[in-house]
Amino acid sequence: xxxxxxxxxxxxxxxxxxxxxxxxxxxxxxxxxxxxxxxxxxxxxxxxxxxxxxxxxxxxxxxxxxxxxxxxxxxxxxxxxxxxxxxxxxxxxxxxxxxxxxxxxxxxxxxxxxxxxxxxxxxxxxxxxxxxxxxxxxxxxxxxxxxxxxxxxxxxxxxxxxxxxxxxxxxxxxxxxxxxxxxxxxxxxxxxxxxxxxxxxxxxxxxxxxxxxxxxxxxxxxxxxxxxxxxxxxxxxxxxxxxxxxxxxxxxxxx
Length: 255
Ligand code: SF4
Ligand code: SF4
Ligand code: FES
Hints:
The protein is built from 8 helices and 9 strands. By secondary structure, it is of the alpha+beta class. The model has no long low-confidence stretch (mean pLDDT 88). The structure holds iron/sulfur cluster (2 copies) and FE2/S2 (inorganic) cluster (FES).
C-alpha cells in the first residue's frame, strides 16, 4: 500500500490578491505518479454563484477541470461522515461547510491532518476503525431476547442520556484535530472512539459495564487526553467529546 504523511506547502497569497478569480487550492497526491505531494490551484470565475457548499465546489472542479481529483462523499447531508477534510485550516465536513465568494478569494483544502494519505483528499482510516472495533461497538446484554421478536426497551430518561452521543457520525474530524492523537494514534483511542465508548457504557440496555471500564483501565487509552478541547471546537455535529472524556476519567477512577 502507498502511504505518505502530508508535508507543509508554502503558498504566497499576496501574488493572487485583487484578481477577478476565486482560487481553490487543493492538496494532491497520487501514489502511482511517484511524485511528492503538490498543490493544485484552480482559478474559478464563479461570481454568478454567490454561495456553495465546499462539496459542491469539489464536484464542480472534478466535473469541469480535473476528473482525477479524488475525495470521499456519500450522503451530502452531514450523516455519513465520509467527506471530512481540512477546510481553511479547520477539520470539517465538506457537505456542511459553506463559503461565500463575496467575502473570500481563497479556499484551501487539505485531507485530515496527521493521517496517512491514500490519494488526494482521502486518508487511511484503518487505524481509526480498528480502534472502533476494539471497544465492541454493539449491545452486550444479559437479558434473553426471545427470537428477536421483543423490543429491548429503555425508559425515556435513560434514552435521554444518549443525547449528545448517538449523533456522532464517526467522521474523525475531532480525532484528527487532537494533538495527543497525532502523536499516540496507535495507543490513545482519541476523542471519537472515547465518545462512542461512553455511549455504550451508559446505555441502560448494555450489561458490559465492567468489561468496558476494564478496557479503558490502561495508561494510554484515556489518560492521554490533556483537555486541550480542539476536538469539541471542530465537531461538525456540535458534540462535546472533551467533556465526555472527563466523565470517562471520572468513571474509571471510581469504579
Ligand atoms: S464526535 Fe463529532 S467530530 Fe468526532 S467523530 Fe463524532 S461527529 Fe465527528
Ligand atoms: S480534549 Fe483531549 S481528546 Fe480533545 S483535543 Fe484535547 S487532548 Fe484531544
Ligand atoms: S457526504 Fe456524508 S457527511 Fe458529507
